[in-house]
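Every protein is a chain of amino acids, and every chain bends into a shape of its own. The protein below has been through that process, and both of its lines are reproduced in full.
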Amino acid sequence: MNRKPKNIFFYLDKIGGFITYFRNFFINSLFLIILFFGVIIGIISAVISQVSDNEKEIDLSKISVMIIKFAGSVADTPRYNASADEFVEILTGEKIEHTFIRDIVNSIKYATNGDSPINHIIIDASNLSNIRLDQVETIGNSLKTFTEQGKKVSFYSKSYSQAKYALASYANNIYLDPMGSFTINGLTIENIYFKELLDNLGVTVYTPKAGTHKSAIEPFIRTNMSEHVKKEYQEIVNTIWSQYKEIVTSNKPNVNLDEVLYASEAYLNNLAKYKTECNLAKELGFVDFCVSKEEFISKFEKDRNIVVDNNNHKTLEDINLKKTNSIDYLTYLKKTKNKRKTFNQKEANVDVIFGIGEITDIAEDITSFSPENIVPLIKKSQHSKKSKGIILYLNTPGGSVTASEEIRRALVDYKKSGKKIVAYMTGTTASGGYWISSLADSIVAHPSTITGSIGVFALSPSFEKMANKYGITTDGVTTNNNANRSILSKQTENEAKAIQLHIDNTYELFKNYVSEDRKIKMDIVNQIAQGRIYTGSQAIKKHLVDELGDFNKAFADLKNLIHSDSTYIIKYRLPKEKNNLGNFSKMFVKAMAKFNQNVALELFNMLQDNSNIKALLPKHKANTKTEIKSFMPLVVTEAK
C-alpha cells in the first residue's frame, strides 16, 4: 500500500499545534502563578491586618471618653459563631453588629473603677430598635453607679420610644433631634382571635388543656379575651407600668408622664403649644437639648476645647480618636482584658448557659433552645473540674414538654455531681421555662419578668369541614376506630379522652415538680398553678422565685451557694457548629473573595464540608405530628 507524501501544510499544522500548546501552557501557568501569589499576598495582608489590630497600642491613661453605640436589639447572649455570619463578614469585610448586654454592662463597670481615667460616656441610641425593661434597669443601674462617681453620661437619639427613654433617663444630659419623635404610649397586651375565620373556613381546632387560666388556646376558640384572663393581664400591665414610671420619675423627679401620654388631652394641648415633640419634651423637662447629631458632636468638641478639622462630621465614629481621647466600648473591653486578669491559683469557672426562645425538640441552628444544643453544654460543665456551677440565663415562653423534660433530666444529673444551679429569669420565662428552672438551687427574676404559666395544652386542627366544602372526601379501611389520626378526619371521642389524659398526667407531673423543688404544699400549688402568669414581683410572693434582681444578683447567689474562696471567672458556654472554619481557613477564603466571590463560596462550602450555607437559606420547620405543648405565647408590647 502506497503512502501519500506529506506536504508542507501538514508540518506547518503540527508546528502550529505545538506552538498553541506551549502558548496556552505558558499563559495558564502564568495565570496560576499570579493567582497563587495573589492569594498568598491576600493571606499575608489579612494576617498583618489582624496582627496590627491586635497589637495596636492605645494609651488607656489618656482616654477620657467612652462611646456606646447601640445597633438593633439588645441581645441576651453573646454572638454565636454561625458559619453564615462568618461568610457574610468575609465577603463584605464588615462585622455584623451585635449588642450584647453583658458587654455594655461590663464596659461601664470597668470605666467606673477608681483607676479608670474615663469620666464621660456618650451613648448613641439612634439605631436601638428594641430593649426590654429588665435590660433598661440592668444597664441603667451601671450608668447610675458611674454618675455617682461624679462622672458624666450624655445620651443622644434621633427619636425616643418609651423603652429607649427609660434608659436615657439615667443620663446627665439627654439630646433629641429637633424633628425627632418622643413617644410615651403606656403598655398593652393584645391577642388576635381567629375563631370566626376558622369557622368560615371550616377548620376545627381541638384545644384540650389543664389549667383554668391557660389562655394560649383562647384565640382559636373565642372571639375575645375571657374575663378572668383579662383581669390577670390587667394586673400584669399595671404592675409593669408602675415599674416603668418608678424608673423614669426616680431619675427625673420633676417630670409628669401624664403630660406626654400619646394622644391624651394633655399631650394634644402641649403639642399645639410647643409645635414639635422635641420642644414639648424639652419644655416639660424630659430632654435637655434639641439638636441634630452634627450639632451634638460639635457641642461635645467645643465643650472639651477640641480644635477639629474642617470635616463635615456625620457620625460619632467621625470624632477623631487623638483629638477627643475617646474609645469605643468594645475596644475598651478588649484593651483592658489583660489588665483585668488575676492569675489567681484558685480561679474557678461559673458557666452561663443560655436558653432563649421557644423550647423545641429539633434544633434548626445553634441558636435554638433545644436538647441537642443545651444538654451537651450541661454535660461539659458537669465534667469540667474548673467549673463549680451553672447560671441558667433564660428568656423563653416555653415550648415542647418532651424537650423541656430532656433538658431537666440533664440538670437533675448535673445536681447529683454536687454542683449548684441558679436560674436567672429575664423577659418571659414561663411554662416550659419554669418546668426547667424549678429545680434550681436559687431562682432570680427581674421584677418585670413574666413567669409562671404552670399548665399544659395541645392544639390539633382538623380540615375535614373545609375539605368537604370544596368537594374533597376521604374513605378507606382500618383495623380499629381510632387508627386514623388524619387532619382530614374529625377527632373521635376516645381520641379526645386519650389526649386529655396525657395532658392531665403531664400537668400533675408539672405540679409535683413545683411542689417538690420549691417546697410548696400541693394544695397551694393547685391555687398558684392553673396556667396563671405572674410578674417577678408577684411571683416572689407566691414563692415561685427566691430573689428579685439582675444577672449580678444571680452570680452573687451562685457564689454564696458554692462556699469557696476561689476567684470566679464567668464563662459563656455556647453551642458550636461542627464544621466551624479555623482562623487560617477564614483568611484563605477572605483572600480568595477579593478575587472571585463565587470561587470563595465554593471554597467555603468545601472547607465546611457542606453543600450550602444552611443559615442563609429559608428556614422550614420539620413536619412533625401534633404533640403536647407547654407554651405561653404572651408578648407585652408598647401600645401602637
In short: Residues 50-55, 306-322, 609-640 have pLDDT under 50 and may be disordered. The chain has 24 helices and 25 strands. Residues 62 and 68 are 18 Å apart (CA to CA). The longest helix spans residues 8-55.
